[in-house]
Amino acid sequence: MANRPPMAAARRLADRLWRVVVVALAAATAFALTPGAAQATPFPETWLADSRTHAYCFIESSGSNPWWHSQKEAVEYAMVEQLEKPTDMVAKRESCASGTDVWWWKRDLGPGVRGEAQCMTWVSGNRCDSADIRLDFAELDKGGNDWHDRRKTAVHELGHTVGLGHHSPGAHDCAMMSGEVPNTDVTWRRFHPHDRYHINQTY
């Protein structure tokens, strides 16, 4: 009988320690599930724009492949609704000339390639003075959800011109995921808050 009090005390201590472990594990799990908490992506992943003003233009084809109004709307959505309005950057439409930050092209990019971005003129280091974005609408309009997919791809390629790379699903569910939109949720047609934070801190 003399041994019971110490054993009871040991059990109470073990119970307390177990509760502490359970609480700690629950807190760690909650932190890991917080968006962006444990899945932060580096920045920049590509190159940086040369300034906070992101001037853009459309390369108008004189042949049989002009920009349709609905196609330009997808670009305007990316430049104004998803870059200028939610961040500190300024989108400015102008005529294509030397120094224009983003030149939008319609191009046949080949099977399975929906869009691409490329810096054409470097300022210094990883700063880009002028970039081309090429969209292949024949590829974009395959499958369903074309309206959403055009916008997602325009936002995606634009993201590359301000420092964003490809995000895997689960890290940041947003326009920077590669491939088609999985559904019509607006999540896939905008930058993640984590990315907007980096853009605002940089520009």
TrEMBL record:
<dbReference type="InterPro" id="IPR024079">
    <property type="entry name" value="MetalloPept_cat_dom_sf"/>
</dbReference>
<keyword id="KW-0732">Signal</keyword>
<protein>
    <recommendedName>
        <fullName>Matrixin family metalloprotease</fullName>
    </recommendedName>
</protein>
<feature type="signal peptide">
    <location>
        <begin position="1"/>
        <end position="40"/>
    </location>
</feature>
